[in-house]
Amino acid sequence: MIRLNGWRRLGLVLAGLWLVGCLALAAVEWSGKQTGVFVYRTLATGSTIDVLKNQVVLPDGSVAKLTQKLAERQPWELDWNKEPEAAPVLVLNWFRILKLGLFFPIAMWLALEGIALCARWVLRGFPASREEVR
Predict the structure, then answer these.
(1) How far lies 98's CA from each of 16, 34, 59, in Å?
(2) Alpha carbons 16 and 103: distance in angstroms, whole number
(3) Domain-located, residue 68
(4) Which pTM was predicted?
(5) Do 41 and 84 meet the contact criterion of CB atoms below 8 Å apart?
(6) How does DSSP assign 53-121, residue by residue?
(7) Residue of 118, 110, 120 lying closest to 8 (CA atoms)
(8) C-alpha distance from residue 92 to each of 37, 45, 50, 95 (Å)
(9) 128 within some domain
(10) Quick check: is 88 in a domain?
(11) Which among 12, 14, 90, 97 would be 20 to 30 A from 52, CA to CA?
């Protein structure tokens, strides 16, 4: 079992604060109905895209003109965040929340632990006093 010294405890506290910060940012973006790091816009289920007329027909029958040209790109290449009328559905990117909220601090902690272990190993190779050299 790993002994939790002060540095490891500090690392756990910082990782916990990082996770809370990521979740708070996702909650603010979601509640504010805005796009950002964790929230993005997408088409409603049942929407149809008319490439020739450069518009989207939503499931309720309303039509939204697109500002981006569909003739130049495919529909999945469009930035739907720039088309709020055509893409009214906000979606949370759970993978990005997990990646930035959990995997990033764990990877950083493991990297720092590895650096500390290597530094400790290198320092053990040097003598503690001049008398050991003789």
Answers:
(1) 13, 20, 32
(2) 12
(3) yes
(4) 0.64
(5) yes
(6) TTEEE-TTS-EEE-SS-TTTS-GGGS-GGG-TTT--EEEE-HHHHHIIIIIHHHHHHHHHHHHHHHHHH
(7) 110
(8) 9, 16, 26, 9
(9) no
(10) yes
(11) 90
Domain interval for residue 55: 39-92
pLDDT tens track for 32-61: 877 888 888 888 888 888 888 888 998 988
∠ CA 76-97-35, nearest 5°, is 50
pLDDT (tens digit per residue) in 81-134: 888 888 888 888 889 888 888 898 889 888 988 998 899 889 888 877 666 555
Residue 125: C-alpha distances to residues 28, 59, 99, 116, 122 (Å) = 51, 71, 38, 15, 5
Kind of pairing, strands 89-92 and 55-57?
A: unpaired
Report which residue type is found at 90.
L
> Looking at the domain assignment, is residue 15 inside a domain?
no
Interatomic CA distance for residues 131 and 47, integer angstroms: 81
Structural domain tally of the chain? 1
CA distance 17 to 13: 6
In a 3-state reduction of DSSP, which class is residue 10? helix
